[in-house]
Amino acid sequence: MVTIKDVAKKAGVSPSTVSRALSGNGPVKESTRKKVLDAVKLLDYRPNFLAQGLKEGKTKTIGLIIPNIRNPIYPAVARGVEDAAKKFGYTVILCNTDEDVDTEKEYIQKLQKRWVDGIIIAPASNENEHIVKLQNENFPIVVIVRNVDFLSNAVIIDNYRAAYDAVSYLIRTGHRRIAIVKGNQQLALYRERFRGYKQALLDAGIPVVEELIAGDDSDSVQWTLDGYNAINCLFSQNIEFDAVFATTDLRAIGAIRAIKDHGYKVPEDISVIGFDNLEFSSLIDPPLSTVSQPLYDIGMRAVNKLIPLIDNKTVTEPTIEIMLSELIIRKSTK
Amino acid sequence: MVTIKDVAKKAGVSPSTVSRALSGNGPVKESTRKKVLDAVKLLDYRPNFLAQGLKEGKTKTIGLIIPNIRNPIYPAVARGVEDAAKKFGYTVILCNTDEDVDTEKEYIQKLQKRWVDGIIIAPASNENEHIVKLQNENFPIVVIVRNVDFLSNAVIIDNYRAAYDAVSYLIRTGHRRIAIVKGNQQLALYRERFRGYKQALLDAGIPVVEELIAGDDSDSVQWTLDGYNAINCLFSQNIEFDAVFATTDLRAIGAIRAIKDHGYKVPEDISVIGFDNLEFSSLIDPPLSTVSQPLYDIGMRAVNKLIPLIDNKTVTEPTIEIMLSELIIRKSTK
DNA sequence: CAAAAACATAAAAACGTTTGCATTTACCTG
DNA sequence: CAGGTAAATGCAAACGTTTTTATGTTTTTG
Q1: Interchain pair A95, B82: CB under 8 A
Q2: Which residues of B touch A100 (CB under 8 A)?
Q3: Is A114–B46 a contact, with Cβ atoms under 8 angstroms apart?
């Protein structure tokens, strides 16, 4: 490989002059700068990033830790992160944890070996002392999508509020027996959505009944399955309901499938509302009513929050940024 | 930050001994190894990756360059790449080109600054001298998904064959007026699929007629739109057809929408077959018949092909690996 | 025109590792 | 128990940069 010394020799100057000519961190005569630039071009010299990084203690790299890029909410997030990172001259390392805390820890270790300048993470579970530790060490880190139970720099939506609004909409449009596919209650975000569901019912004077609460805490990769099973379960118990609030679009899709399988129509017999607004949620039949998360923006904002943390090492109180979600009504609700 | 010297001091040995104790690259007495390990734990020492990389000329990092992670075929590929990479101790840097050659070049430059050991790429376009150049420089690179017109290490499917089989299936099941949404003909993979379509018709004695060839070369991010517009276009010209071969599932979804919008039924009136087998293609209505690409495996195989290129710097002829695709018949064909 | 000031460049140290070589220590063997 | 061998460890160089310090060369100015 061609080094700065080769360039120096070719241009007839010292390595330090080459460095200055390229970085602009010092005076260099126009004529020599030209000689250097010519030599650089001639030899196709590219500075060794590792050496630079070693010297400066920075890598201009950030780690993005998410449960699974195949979960369709994450590509948009990843894209937002990458686009923003690129704008700041950073590159992104992608890490999938499969919802497993140990994998998450392992990746953090790996990333931390001083080569990423910061981390953006959608935590795998509610066990996150390792994240607290990182934060205490003043390592730049931003939590996204899944809020945690300690104060941290985070970019999320108000899951409680969003769920409350969605369920309130169902109530307002005449539904009274509203089932929920509740999601993994280990995760704060599903607890919040569940809480929103209950409060909306209570505020409307509708009792929260156990038999309408469906879904389990499994984390199957077949994400529609939970919704499908949950609704099938209701049918098999002959429980009546006129609407379903699914805590993700994928669960909603599974729910719709189950409803159709039992010969009922969406939304004529049963309304279904989802959560996430995946790109293809408008493409299914019927197009899904859902809560839209600004996933791309969450990714972008996370980077915008992270960079200052990396730059000014001034310690500031962590802040949570609440992004706006939006209720999108399509054809799966009447 | 804590360095190897700190550990050495704490353990009462020299830095070289610490290095050997940790890497195993030399003899070290059991008792001293223990002292070192204790010191490491006590100080929470983590070797500086940059320094290691600088010394060894390797970063244990690979770059993955794809058009767009939001295009639903790529998450599976990315996951395959990451899982395999992890097995070999490598990490993955994700780069989205948005189908833009300049962005692609820019990323390659960036990655090449000696810090990725190899690159896996789904090229943005048919302009790829920069990839040829990389290959000639003996830089480890593997092409995936989108074949190129020069001999390279690649992991792809036989797009011609797969398209041929899909169209042949339509013919065998009684369709005669088969329209195609042809995809961007700048890209070899769509040319191949188009060629398969034509050959299948010819081999069955069915003429290839211009009016049934639809779709344009745009690369809109709204990937269903091309299929939607293409089919609408046919209807508006009053062209009759009894089947559609869409060159991607997303185009198929758009096509189905257009067909439904015009009051026809899939598959009773018009059959539709797609290409890719996206995770949600079985979830739409009707569940889509399609050609399955082993996307996850393509990612995995690409890494398995790349690692030897990185390790043995022995120059071997590039080889193309053809993965098997599979025709999956669901409910969108009769 | 000489001395000071400003500018341009070179030399050397530093970043945190790994590793070849030299040295010390421990262990055998005759 | 001396001498030889093997094992364990330390020293120093090297990886490719950037930056501080030192040196040499202009230019300015009284």
Answers
A1: yes
A2: none
A3: yes
Q: For A20 and C3, how far is CA from C1' in angstroms?
A: 30
With an 8 Å Cβ cutoff, are A75 and B69 in contact? yes
Q: Are the CB atoms for A181 and A244 separated by under 8 Å?
A: yes
Q: Residue A325 — very low, low, confident or very high, per pLDDT cuts 50/70/90? A: very high
Distance A26 CA to C10 C1' (A): 14
pTM beyond cutoff 0.85: yes
pLDDT, tens only, A211-233: 999 998 877 767 889 999 999 99
Residue A304 phi, psi dihedral angles, 5° rounding = -60, -25
Residues A118-133 pLDDT 10s: 999 999 998 999 999 9
On average, the pLDDT of chain A sits at 94
B53 touches chain A (CB under 8 A): yes
Distance from CA of A76 to the nearest CA of B (A): 6
Pick left, alpha or beta for residue A276 (phi over 0 → left; psi -120 to 50 → alpha; otherwise beta).
Answer: left
Ordered structural domains, chain A, with CATH:
4-47 (1.10.260.40), 59-157+295-324 (3.40.50.2300), 159-293 (3.40.50.2300)
